[in-house]
Amino acid sequence: MSKKARILVLALVGVLGLVWVFWATVGNNSGVDNKLISYQVVDPTLTTVDVAVTKDPPATARCALQAMNDSYAVVGFKVITIGPNGNGTGTDSGRTTTVRGELRTDSPAVTGLVQECWIVH
């Protein structure tokens, strides 16, 4: 392979690497972040999950919540909707809202968690 061809191949690999890094950091962003605040196993049929959701105030997000048993099996599942916020709602000028989801469970849970959140288009 000639020196010119090697330089061209290396430049192409470099550009593809930069495109991948850009996609991984910016393009793969769902526009919403979540943080599990707490969960409580209320009784064998009910678990609550408190989550802080950060998004653009006018956006609507949904979050999938799960309750799991000691074998890591899902025993409760619910999708909650977080609507648009005004500037006075929540914290961070309306960007972060704390919500509670109540999950009915078909057997006793030992934990509650946020599976994922996404922006509704």
Keywords:
alpha+beta, 6 strands, 45% strand, 3-stranded antiparallel β-sheet
List the helices and strands and how they pair.
Blueprint: H1 3-27, E1 33-43, E2 46-54, E3 61-68, E4 74-82, E5 96-104, E6 111-119
Antiparallel strand pairs: 1-2, 2-5, 3-4, 3-6
Terminal Cα span: 49 Å
Order of helices and strands: HEEEEEE
Helix content: 10-25%
Tell me the fraction of residues in β-strands, as a range: over 45%
Sum up the overall morphology in one term: elongated
| Major sheet characteristics | 3 strands, antiparallel
| Multimeric status of the protein | single chain
Structural class: alpha+beta
Tally of individual helices: 1
Low-confidence stretches: none
For the largest sheet, list the strands in their spatial order: 1-2-5
Overall mean pLDDT: 87
Radius of gyration computed on alpha carbons: 21 Å
Give the total of beta strands.
Answer: 6
